[in-house]
Write a structure and sequence with these properties.
Blueprint lengths: L1 H12 L1 H8 L5 H11 L3 H12 L3 H8 L5
Helix pairs in contact: 2-3, 2-4, 3-4
């Protein structure tokens, strides 16, 4: 039971890094370092999460230049 809880907390801890990777965020290394070293604080995790959620320039370009179907 403890193993499942520990694995779940680890996955939750790394959510900002995984989200930045999924979004192809240009600052993924910085987000990952912030998440790994300061994610244990609530503030560090929230900052990494919000930073990962920010729209990357690639996403902004794709959204603006999408060809209507």
């Amino acid at each position: 039971m403890f193993d499942i809880l520990l694995a779940s907390l680890l996955v939750l801890y790394l959510v900002p890094m995984a989200d930045a990777y999924d979004r192809a965020h240009p600052k993924i290394v910085s987000i990952a370092l912030l998440n790994i070293f300061f994610g244990w604080t609530i503030i560090g995790w929230v900052v990494a999460f919000v930073w990962a959620q920010s729209v990357s320039p690639v996403e902004r370009y794709v959204a603006r230049n999408r060809v209507p179907a």
